[in-house]
Design brief:
By secondary structure, this protein is α/β, with parallel strands linked by helices. It contains five helices and five strands, in the order E-H-E-H-E-H-E-H-E-H. The protein has a five-stranded parallel β-sheet, sandwiched between helices. Helix 3 links the parallel strand 3 and strand 4. It starts with 6 loop residues before the first strand and ends with a helix.
Length: about 130
C-alpha cells in the first residue's frame, strides 16, 4: 500500500497583503509531491481551520508578516483544539522575532521558519514531521 501524500493548507491570515513567500512555499511543497491548498489572502483563523478540516489536511502552514503572529497562530491552534482537529500540524513563518518563537511553540505551533529558511529546509521538515493518515 502506498503512503498518501501530505496534504497542506497554506494560508495568509489577517490583513497582510504580501503573499509571495506563501506562494513560493506552496509551490515547493507541491513540487515535492505534496497536495497543497492555498487559501489566498486575508483569511480569518476560522476560515483557515474550516478549510483544513474540509480538505482533510495533515498540516496548516501560516505566513504572517504583519506582526500579529502571536494572536493569529494562537487562534488557529485554539480553533483546531475546539473542533477536535489538533492532529493537524501547525507550522509557519514570516517576520517573527526569535524571542516570540518559544511562546508560539508553547501554544502548539510545531515549527516556525524565519527569513532565510530555504524551501528545501521547509520541505524536509514537513516530510519528517507531518504524519499522513
Amino acid at each position: 500500500m502506498t503512503e498518501s501524500p501530505v496534504r497542506v493548507v497554506v494560508a495568509k491570515p489577517g490583513l497582510d497583503g504580501h503573499d509571495r513567500g506563501a506562494k513560493v512555499v506552496a509551490r515547493a511543497l507541491r513540487d515535492a509531491g505534496m497536495e497543497v491548498i492555498y487559501t489566498g489572502l486575508h483569511q480569518t483563523p476560522e476560515q483557515i481551520v474550516e478549510a483544513a478540516i474540509q480538505e482533510d489536511a495533515d498540516a496548516i502552514g501560516l505566513s504572517v508578516l504583519s506582526g500579529a503572529h502571536l494572536t493569529l497562530f494562537a487562534k488557529v491552534v485554539e480553533l483546531l483544539r475546539a473542533k477536535e482537529a489538533s492532529d493537524i500540524v501547525v507550522f509557519g513563518g514570516g517576520i517573527i522575532p526569535d524571542d516570540d518563537i518559544p511562546q508560539l511553540e508553547a501554544l502548539g505551533v510545531a515549527k516556525v521558519f524565519t527569513p532565510g529558511a530555504t524551501t528545501m529546509e521547509i520541505v524536509k521538515w514537513v516530510r519528517d514531521n507531518v504524519p499522513t493518515d
